[in-house]
Known about the structure:
Blueprint: H1 10-16, E1 20-24, H2 27-30, H3 50-53, H4 56-61, H5 63-79, H6 84-95, E2 99-103, H7 109-112, E3 119-120, E4 123-130, E5 157-161, H8 170-182, E6 185-189, H9 200-207, E7 211-215, E8 228-230, H10 234-254
Parallel strand pairs: 1-2, 1-6, 2-3, 6-7, 7-8
Antiparallel strand pairs: 4-5
The structure holds ligand BV8 and zinc ion (ZN).
Amino acid sequence: MPTAPVPEGLAERVAAAQHVMVLTGAGISAESGVPTFREAQTGLWSRFRPEELATAEAFAEDPDTVWAWYEWRRDLVAAAGPNAGHAALAELERMLPRLTLVTQNVDGLHQRAGSPDPIEFHGNLFDNRCFDCGRPAPDVPRPCPALPRCEACGGWIRPGVVWFGEAIPTAALQRSFSAADDCDLFLSVGTSSLVYPAAGLAERAAACGAALVEINPAPTELARHAVCAWASPAGEALPVLVATLDGMRAVDREK
Length: 255
Ligand code: BV8
Ligand code: ZN
C-alpha cells in the first residue's frame, strides 16, 4: 500500500520551526513488536492490566510476579530493535536547529536508534535500584529470573521505571517543562495522551503558543486541538516527513 504523503503544510511548518518538541508513547515502538499499553497483554500476562502491575503496591504485595513481568518485557525489548520511526526521529534531530525528544517509553529504543539524549519521562526498563534503600543496582545480570536482592541492605531490587502514583524524576520533569514552554512546534507521536503529567505537556506547549501536531493511526483527544492530526503509523509517517524535508532542502540548495 503506497505511503500517504505528508499532510499539506506540515513539512513547511517543521522546516520553519525554531524548536520542535516531540513526545512519544508506546505507539512508536508498536512497529518494533513491543505491545502498547492499550493492547491487551498476551499469554501469561493476559489476565493482568498494566496499571495493576506498574505500581509500588503491586510490587510490595507480590514482588516476584512484578519482577517476572519486567523480565518478560526486557527479554521482548532486547530481542526487538528500533524501527523506521525511531530512526527518522534521530535523523530529524540531526536535520533541525533544535529538537527536544521526550519519551514515555521505558524500552530504550530511541537511544538504540541514535537519538543522543531522549528525556526518559518514565525511566528505563534496564535500570534497577533497591526498593528499600534506593541504591542503584547496575550489576543485575541479564536474564535474572529470580528477584534479586540489594547488596547493601538486602532489600528487593525493583526496575528503575516510574510507577503509577510515583513522581516523575525531577530533572526529566524540569527539562520537559522548559522545552514545552520554549518550543514552537509540538509533535505528539504514538500516545493515547491519557497518562499525566506526560499528557499535560502538549497542553502546556499550546498554552505557550506552540502549534500541536499528532501522528497516530487512531486520533486522540489531542487531535481536536492540533493544527494537523496525521492518522498514520509512526513508522510510515516519520520517514516520509524526513524524505520530504530532504527534498525541500535539495530544491533550496539549487536556487
Ligand atoms: C503521578 C512506566 C503524582 C512503567 C508508566 C490515582 C492515583 C495516583 C495517580 C493517579 C491517579 N489517577 C490519575 C493519576 C495520575 C496517573 C495517571 O495519569 N493515571 C492515568 C491512568 C489516568 N499518573 C501517575 O500516576 C504519574 N505520577 O501522578 O504522581 C505524584 C506527584 C508527586 C509525588 C508523588 C506522586 C506516573 C505515571 C507513569 C506511570 N508509568 N510507564 C512501565 O512502563 O511499566 S505509564 C505507561 O502508560 C507508559 O509509560 C505510558 O505513559 C502510558 C501508556 O500510554 P501510551 O504510551 O500512550 O500507550 P498507549 O498504549 O496508551 O497508547 C498507544 C497509542 O499508540 C494509541 O493511541 C495507539 O493508537 C497508538 N499507536 C498504535 N500503533 C501505532 C500508534 N501510533 C503510531 N504508530 C503506530 N504504529
Ligand atoms: Zn538497599
